[in-house]
Write a structure and sequence with these properties.
The protein has 2 domains: 2-122, no CATH class; 133-288, Alpha-Beta Complex (Phosphoenolpyruvate Carboxykinase, domain 3). β6 (66-70) and β7 (75-79) form a beta hairpin. The chain is elongated. It contains 6 helices and 17 strands. It is an alpha+beta fold.
Length: 291
Amino acid sequence: MVRDTFCLRFSGITVRFDLPTQITVPQNFLPFLCPDTDTPDDRYTVELLHAPLRPSGPRVLTLDETDIYETDKGWLHIHPVLGDGEGCQVACLFCPDGCHTVYYPASKWAYYSEVWNCSHLIQGEQLLARHDAMLLHSSLVLCQGKTLLFSGPSGAGKSTHAALWEAHTDARVLNGDRTVIQRRSDGTFWGGGSIWSGTSGIFSPEQAPIAAIFLVEKSPENRVERLGANAFPPLYTQTILRSWDSRFMEKILDLFSQLLDQIPVYRLYCRPDREAVELVAKTVFGKEAPL
């Protein structure tokens, strides 16, 4: 599918992209395509640079080869290693009004337009925070109209456990690595798929109320432990945080506070087997366990 303008919708957020030429819409964007609109929630305009950017504000820090500036228009992320070698950069200017700009060197646009995928450039964590949402490093499973989140560091077994739910129940995995957690207007929390999914390749626009969150840990036995306030530290480490942005941190901490008040969080010690699925199903659904 080739376009120079298109809209995506996920977790109730409509995002429009305007590009200088036609490109092939990336595969991970296709499930989220929606009718075009001139009134999206957020808009990204791609502009081509013929001269280097000159940030109007100070550089706050350099993180993972990205220079981050606080400018009079918004947060500017510059990626020097992706530039043209002559000073023109790949960058994203994220603005409070929802009208953002992604920059590419004009001299390299022919290359970038062939392999275009800006999902790693658009500051997704800040986009979501604008709409009372955040990303949690987790696999997302949909079952009986509810979502279950399996979180933990890489290698903990969350993707394996999510796959077991598809193998042993009528559940479906909506995202294999990055779940959108959103606080809706009625105050409830929903889990949804996103354009970010790590290496899992699982992308879905579906979302549903969150039933529970499980922190997965490999163990020779299957057991579940309900967490209270102790749930905050391990969950906090599985989000993408902008510690230099006080407004962002205030929003995320507020979301976490309300999330933990409403949604049960468990430590799941488990083997990769059906019994672990049965244990979680009984914990969440009781006698209505979908097995």
